[in-house]
Specification:
283 residues; two-stranded parallel sheet; 11 strands; binds NADP nicotinamide-adenine-dinucleotide phosphate; NAD(P)H-binding protein; NmrA-type_oxidoreductase
């Protein structure tokens, strides 16, 4: 059986839909904090189990009888994220899990600027150290996050963000979900590490230019200081930890930690991946 954590989230749910096209539903387990969030799939035949990353025994019970799991990275910040992800690995070790397909980030490691990259690096190490078989999906940014970066730009085309000339090799979350489903169903004997990116890396000036050419907006990117960005986040009611997280993300982009371009996604899909231009045209 295959278990998907974060199964009601964007990536988890999309992966489940691809799995449902190819697998027997009774072989699939959706692990969620709140099973009522899976009501739309309650008659699909998949098993819906409760599990919270904060509670190791709930995750162990959720993984019961599952030999393969997809571990969706934590949705919180800092040390809480480190602890939650370690909990999921420990639960896998203590249950029937043999193989983890882990949703990581493009450049994980404790020396990276992006705070989530520190968490992902530690989790990759924990999985490898535990002797579990693994496939790591080192994902670049999802295209679907662009509206979050540039929310005002969708109205007037003006992007204000502190990423300098940093570029991002955006990949479509739907393409990633399809590739994850394929990987979960593949019989592998060894470990794999995939660098999941788009076919090109684009700066925010390119995103602004695409908003102009594809959407007819008066696209323009302005690089703002970190402090000004932090003030905007403070006005949105974010905690200091959240603000530090988002500043670390911008600094990471500026340092081109998300700029790498690799072919792994197309190889896994066996077709071309979605382009940034197509995505922005459809926004
Ligand atoms: N590469 C990128 O551009 C990018 C962008 C955004 C996020 N991410 C990372 O990729 C992951 C998946 O992305 P997504 O778009 O699918 O995010 P998402 O829609 O926010 O989904 C996150 C999932 O994790 C679950 N979750 C959160 N805390 C949990 C806990 N304590 N125990 C069990 N489940 C918990 C959520 O459940 P609830 O509904 O109960 O909260 C949700 O199902 C994110 O969690 C984040 O680490 C990457």
């Amino acid at each position: 059986m295959i278990a998907i954590t974060g199964a009601n989230g964007n990536l988890g749910k999309a992966t489940l839909f691809f799995l449902l096209k190819a697998a027997n539903p009774s072989d699939l387990v959706a692990v969620v904090r709140d099973p009522s969030k899976m009501n739309e799939l309650s008659s699909s035949g998949i098993q819906i189990r409760q599990g919270d990353y904060e509670n190791v025994s709930s995750m162990e019970e959720a993984f019961d009888g599952c030999d393969t799991i997809m571990q969706v990275s934590s949705a919180v910040y800092g040390e809480q994220a480190d602890r939650q992800e370690k909990n999921v690995v420990n639960a896998a070790v203590n249950s029937d899990v043999k193989r983890i397909v882990y949703v990581s980030t493009l450049n994980p490691g404790k020396e990276k600027l992006f705070r989530a990259a520190v968490t992902c690096g530690a989790t990759e190490n924990a999985i490898a150290d535990a002797g579990l078989q693994y496939s790591f999906f080192r994902n670049s940014m999802y295209m679907e996050t662009i509206p979050l970066f540039v929310s005002n730009a969708l109205a007037d085309g003006k992007i204000y963000y502190p990423a300098g000339e940093g570029r991002i090799s955006y990949a479509s979350r739907i393409d990633i979900a399809e590739a994850l489903a394929g990987e979960l169903l593949r019989k592998r004997s060894g470990n794999e590490m995939f660098h999941i990116t788009g076919a090109e890396a684009a700066g925010f000036d390119t995103v602004a230019a695409l908003l102009k050419s594809e959407k007819g907006l008066d696209g323009e990117y302005t690089n703002i200081p970190d402090d000004a960005f932090a003030e905007v986040l403070l006005d949105l009611g974010m905690s200091e930890e959240e603000i530090n997280f988002y500043i670390s993300m911008a600094q990471s982009i500026k340092a081109n930690e998300f700029a790498g371009v690799h072919d792994d996604l197309e190889k896994l899909l066996g077709r071309k991946r979605k382009s940034l231009k197509e995505f922005i045209r459809e926004l």
